[in-house]
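Comment thread on ticket #2218

A.B. wrote:
> Attaching the input chain for the structure job we discussed in standup.
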Amino acid sequence: MNKEQQLEELAQTIKHCQNCPLYQKATQAVPGEGNPEAEIMLTGEAPGFFEDKEGRPFVGQAGKLLDKLLDSINLPRKEVFICNMLRHRPPENRDPLPQEIEACRPFLDKQIEIIDPRIIVTLGRYSLNKFLPGEFISKVHGQARFVDFAGKKRIIIPMYHPAAALRNGIIMEELKKDFQKIVQF
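C.D. wrote:
> Ran it. Output below, let me know if you need it in another format.
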């Protein structure tokens, strides 16, 4: 089975997931999307309102900003893989709970195993803490780190979540600068 088929099979599993109660109030699961051969994977925290409606990651205002940031480094969205820590929307877009992150962990781990990205860009503190536990986004954003994950050394580039940049002009400028660093790798 090739990578595309493996990801589609995993997406079907995610769409029927009942590992935590979030599926009960969600419109649909958001498995993730993108290039099965992507060298860069971007991981956010959880689907929001628009993602829940469309079943696709980063399609609301934060997604539009993410698309602009990718365009700014000449990296089309279709060339990367984009997903979230959680696969169903938390009520009222609240923060993910530890047990929800744990319930979805095998899905992200399997996607990383299948895609085998060289670089994982973490968008926000929840995905940051998956790879760099105990770190603070305000201290490490834009600083590439090498991490052993799934039996391989990977480059992790922590960044602010685009939604935070939409609310804060200083974070917006930091995020724009940090995205330019992806090109170096």
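A.B. wrote:
> Thanks. Noting for the ticket: The beta strands are 33-34, 40-44, 81-84, 119-123, 145-149, 152-159.
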